[in-house]
Write a structure and sequence with these properties.
Radius of gyration: 16 Å
Strand order of the largest sheet: 2-3-1-4-5
Oligomer: single chain
Number of helices: 6
Shape: globular
């Protein structure tokens, strides 16, 4: 069975997780991994040791999903502001017979601020996330991916755009 691996990339608050959950609900025989699930620690630490562990965890999970005949579509999302992050993960995967689709969710800074402020008020994000996310926006412009402007789209609308590439 041919497999499809979908990478969804974008800054914090662009809607990656929400879009991928919607996408998974629309695709029969799919499985979804959010890279954040492989790095949920308290306190959250970013150093060489934790970066190695999270890449190992993501690679292990994705390889297992790709090897399982029960799923034909594997969906993965994560903040990959440097294209080498995605390349590092892809190099560790067994991609024999796997079609790869890579997407970046682009968003204008006004809409991003609005979404993040809602999350901050709801307690699901720290206030510092807004400046971090805005600062990363320009880093995605040249990514070698299919870019989707999500500024005025619902998660279902974005998922349907991604589906059109399957």
């Amino acid at each position: 069975m041919e497999k499809t691996l979908i990478f969804v990339n974008g800054t914090m608050g662009s809607g990656k997780t929400t879009v991928c959950r919607e996408l998974a609900s629309l695709i029969a025989d799919s499985v979804f991994l959010d890279g954040d699930w492989c790095w949920f620690s308290d306190p959250f630490k970013v150093d060489d040791a934790t970066k190695k562990v999270v890449i190992d965890n993501i690679s292990y999970c994705l390889n297992n999903f790709l090897a399982c005949d029960s799923w034909r579509v594997v969906i993965f999302c994560w903040v990959m502001d440097d294209p080498t992050i995605a390349e590092t993960v892809l190099k560790r995967l067994d991609l024999n017979g796997v079609r790869i689709l890579r997407f970046t969710l682009d968003i204008d800074d006004g809409e991003l601020r609005k979404r993040l402020e809602k999350d901050i008020r709801g307690g699901s994000r720290r206030p510092s996330v807004t400046s971090d996310a805005i600062k990363r926006l320009p880093l995605y412009a040249e990514h070698p991916t299919i870019h989707i402007d999500v500024s005025e789209l619902t998660a279902k609308g974005v998922a349907n755009k991604i589906l059109s590439y399957l």
